[in-house]
Design brief:
about 120 residues, alpha+beta, Beta-Lactamase, three-stranded antiparallel β-sheet, globular, GAF-like_dom_sf, IclR-ED domain-containing protein, Tscrpt_reg_IclR_C, HTH_MetabolicPath_Reg
Length: about 120
């Protein structure tokens, strides 16, 4: 059931944002050859910057990262120790979500993720 999805696209970034520096370096070294033909420096720097931003703001809005024309809003679901154990994500066609609606969806996704806090 389901399929494996990468941690450097869409909601996967919620989990990757929690990687330690060493874990992220290892992930970048493993994935960069597939993504960038081995050019991991610039791709890795961009990914690190994105993950730092996601960690700081507590959510991720993805546009076309997995499917062209699609967008998603994701927030982490944390356990009592604050570790990320899941994510709540809402996806839609980008053209169907106005900027005001995007902000409303973001508030709802963040609220739902906090309400689900796992023990």
């Amino acid at each position: 059931m389901g399929s494996r999805l990468s941690l450097h696209r869409g909601a996967g970034k919620i989990f990757a944002a929690e990687f330690s520096t060493e874990q992220l370096t290892q992930y970048i070294e493993q994935v960069a050859p597939e993504e960038m033909g081995g050019e991991s420096d610039s791709w890795g720097a961009q990914l690190r910057a994105q993950l730092n931003e996601i960690r700081a703001q507590g959510y991720h809005i993805a546009r076309g990262e997995r499917i062209v024309g699609a967008m998603s809003i994701s927030a982490p679901v944390r356990d009592r120790s604050a570790a990320v154990r899941a994510s709540i994500t809402v996806g839609a066609e980008s053209r169907d979500v106005a900027e005001a609606a995007e902000q409303e969806l973001l508030a709802e996704v963040k609220h739902a993720a906090e309400a689900v806090r796992l023990s």
